[in-house]
Amino acid sequence: MLDKAAGSWHRYMLPFAVSRARAFGPWVAAIRTEPRNAAWSALKRTSVAVSELQKFRSSPGREKRLTENIKDCDSPHCSFVVEDLFNNLPDYYPGDLSVLNGRTGQILTIHTGQGDSEVVLATDDAVYYRVNDALYRADLAAGKLGSGIKIAEGPDIVQAHWAFLGPAGL
């Protein structure tokens, strides 16, 4: 990471492999990923039925994802569930989130136990994260991350992962 104020670069190692990371000022948030199965990628490139792919390990929270509808077009008949997205992913998501403070190098970890989890905003005061259809806030005090407090829940939260990304003042 580049510390612009100090004019220096720093390299930090996260405690696990990640495929998705986001930056929020000096904070970097990441989602832990693992291979779903070594054979999954080869099967995915063939015309194997989805039922065959579902034999590989599924990220925790599958039952909840089967109930979360996503409407992806203007037709009332055009929708699918969150689990449909997970069925097409090569990764296994155990439900671990990491937040790295680029100024101090401190790494904070949140264990949700649900595959459909992500940090949606990190500030010097709190970390906001989504677990399935619920939004949580965990306050930062004295370098420690407090317990998550549910601040919102509902079907609109399922796809709220971009809600906090963008220029200030929107």
Total E-strand runs:
15
The Cα radius of gyration reads 18 Å
Low-confidence stretches: none
| Number of distinct helices | 4
Largest sheet: 5 strands, antiparallel
Shape: globular
Strand fraction equals 35-45%
Feature tags:
mainly beta, five-stranded antiparallel β-sheet
Per-chain topology:
Blueprint: E1 2-3, E2 8-9, E3 18-24, E4 27-32, E5 34-35, H1 40-44, H2 50-53, H3 62-65, E6 69-71, E7 79-81, H4 82-87, E8 91-92, E9 96-101, E10 107-111, E11 117-122, E12 126-131, E13 134-141, E14 144-145, E15 149-153
Antiparallel strand pairs: 1-2, 3-4, 4-9, 5-8, 6-7, 9-10, 11-12, 12-13, 13-14, 13-15
Question: Could you explain the architecture of this structure?
Answer:
The protein is mainly beta and 170 residues long. It has one domain. Helices cover 11% and strands 38% of the residues. It has four helices and 15 strands. The chain has helices at residues 40-44, 50-53, 62-65, 82-87, and strands at residues 2-3, 8-9, 18-24, 27-32, 34-35, 69-71, 79-81, 91-92, 96-101, 107-111, 117-122, 126-131, 134-141, 144-145, 149-153. The strands form five sheets. Strands 11, 12, 13, 14 and 15 form a five-stranded antiparallel sheet that branches. Strands 3-4-9-10 form a four-stranded antiparallel sheet, with no helix packed on it. A two-stranded antiparallel sheet has the order 1-2. It is globular, with a radius of gyration of 18 Å. The two termini are 27 Å apart.
